[in-house]
From TrEMBL:
Signal peptide: none
Designated name of the protein: GTPase Der
Top-level division of the source organism's lineage: Bacteria
Source organism per UniProt: Plastoroseomonas arctica
Domain EngA-type G: 2-162
Subunit architecture: Associates with the 50S ribosomal subunit.
Function: GTPase that plays an essential role in the late steps of ribosome biogenesis.
Ligand binding (GTP 1): 8-15, 55-59, 118-121
Residues of the full protein shown: 1 to 162 of 443
Family designation: Belongs to the TRAFAC class TrmE-Era-EngA-EngB-Septin-like GTPase superfamily. EngA (Der) GTPase family.
Amino acid sequence: MRTIAILGRPNVGKSTLFNRLVGKKLALVDDTPGVTRDRKEGFQHYGGRRLRFIDTAGLEEAAPTTLAGRMTASSEAAIREADIAIFVVDARAGLTPTDRGFAEWLRRASIPVLLVANKAEGKGGATAALEAYELGLGEPIPVSAEHGEGVTHLIGVILDTL
Ligand code: GDP
Ligand code: MG
């Protein structure tokens, strides 16, 4: 079975995407950054394969001052277990220094990283997602986890990458 880890800074919509991919309300979604305290995992069949998804706590519990400090044990452990990482950024908020630092770390990851620009719903969403090209992680995949837009395409990319 293949494992997909969902990573990124707080509040970008990791848990919303996880729930969308797994099809159940397993992860707690909240407006308060850092609400996913523990990692959650869930399973779903796509393309005839059973996939495991890991929703990480993200970076919220770490000291914000150093790059190393921003990488929580949760993110590192998830990546060690995963075959693919999904790195989520917020297309509405734009890139932050934390996103850039995290991307720098992920560019050295030993597994494929899919860059997802979430909150890209509606007019202008796909255009807003283009900023994420700067991160050097390939073509950003625009999605709206909340509205379900782009998620089928993302699943296709996951299956093609596995
Ligand atoms: P996490 O901290 O990365 O796990 O983020 P959450 O999944 O908890 O979501 C953080 C906030 O972003 C919540 O208020 C969600 O409702 C909101 N959100 C998640 N996905 C989307 C989306 O596709 N579009 C918009 N506009 N908001 C979203
Ligand atoms: Mg969360």
